[in-house]
Amino acid sequence: ESKARGRGRATLFDEDMLSEKRQRRFVERELRAALYLNELELHYQPIKNGSRETYAVEGLIRWRHPVRGMVSPAEFIPVAERSNLIDQLGEWVFRRACADLPMLGDCRISINVSGEQLKRDEIVTMMKRVVDETGVDPQSFVLEITETVATAAGPETVARITALRDMGFKIALDDFGTGHCGFNYIKTLPIDCIKIDRSYIQHLKDDEIAQVFVSALTQIARIQGLSIIAEGIETETEFELAKAAGCSSFQGYLLGRPERRLLSMPQDVQMRQVALSA
Ligand code: C2E
Ligand code: MG
Ligand code: MG
Ligand code: MG
């Protein structure tokens, strides 16, 4: 299983050596230390329009472990979610994004919010606190919530999402198509944007259902006044097909990988970055 997670990516340790519970506790302790030792980084992947201009970026967390190398969020976010660490981690991500915002020109920053965070009021008070302290404009941020979390949300969670949206944050439904895919949720949830999961984009070239699904979704989004982002664009063909299906925004390795240095930013933004880091 660890092999399937990707070549060259460090797994936390030999899974056979420790019980799952001990493993979790071990990672939790290490992650707690990582927060204090500055081992976490927020990398940015460009989100582009049809003309391949970057208008936003998604912040993706990375853990640069001194011994194990880059650890994937897919491995440590679930650990953080099972402990109270996710709140601290979520605050770290938002603060990092606030600090990086001036270096991104006019780009909006999208950050991922865990479903666990949305189970408590702390998410709302924390975001308010950080906005007050840093003076950032919430309109510069998009909060990504997965479809699975959003469609399973009870009234209290929906109220928290609404409170964040009322503060000015934009809300995006992430990984759309992997959950229950209820089209009626699009009408009722307080959202501004839908991100179509890569599993659909991947099959646009050979699966008619995927084509119809994406086209229908873009039409519904247009009626509802929502923007649509096609995730995981890896090839020119996928880019063209997603565009033909009505998508207006695109994200994926073809257009830029997540990076700490924002090399895919426009020239003027890069200059600013240099000036600010000097
Ligand atoms: P996500 O929010 O759906 O992020 C997109 C994932 O797809 C990222 O994986 C990104 O690196 C990857 N990706 C982007 N373009 C392509 C492509 O063209 N092809 C392929 N195969 N993959 C692509 P990553 O960075 O490993 O993150 C995985 C997940 O971990 C994210 O999925 C998100 O749910 C979670 N995550 C990442 N950062 C954070 C964070 O700061 N907070 C929380 N709560 N979750 C995070
Ligand atoms: Mg996301
Ligand atoms: Mg996604
Ligand atoms: Mg995902």
TrEMBL record:
Residues 24-272 form the EAL domain. Keywords: Signal. This is Diguanylate cyclase/phosphodiesterase. It comes from Nitratireductor basaltis. The lineage of its organism: Bacteria, Pseudomonadati, Pseudomonadota, Alphaproteobacteria, Hyphomicrobiales. The chain holds residues 231 to 508 of 508 of the full protein.
